[in-house]
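Long-time lurker. I teach an intro course on protein structure, and each term I like to show students one example going from raw sequence to a predicted 3D structure in token notation. This year I'd like something fresh instead of my usual example. Would anyone be willing to generate the tokens for the chain below so I can use it in lecture? Attribution to the forum is fine with me.
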Amino acid sequence: QVQLVESGGGLVQAGGSLRLSCAVSGSIFSINTMYWYRQAPGKQPELVATITGGGSTNYADSVKGRFTISRDNAKNTVYLQMNSLKPEDTAVYYCAALRAVVAGQPFPKDYWGQGTQVTVSS
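-- Reply from a regular --
Happy to contribute to a lecture. Here you go:
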């Protein structure tokens, strides 16, 4: 069974930092692109950052220069380093593997974590 578990969220003051982790169990291959999404109350989910199996990254304009996505394929873990946090960063953060190739499965499918709460106070 494939499972994604986020951790590292919490309460932080504006200007502070947090590092989120997404531990992936199961046989999701390292070629899969990994995603960080966030969702604030009353808003639609927002794509924050992506990283390909080869290490190429992309960021939303709202976080570029402040957030860094990385991955450690040997540890099956994806990270989101968040610096210079702002109150508008407050949201539940989700990691995901979309259209993921899994051993033993005939077709790609999506996998989502349960989310971790990030709250930034002013």
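Some talking points for your students: The first strand starts at residue 3 and ends at 7. DSSP finds no helices and eleven strands in the chain.
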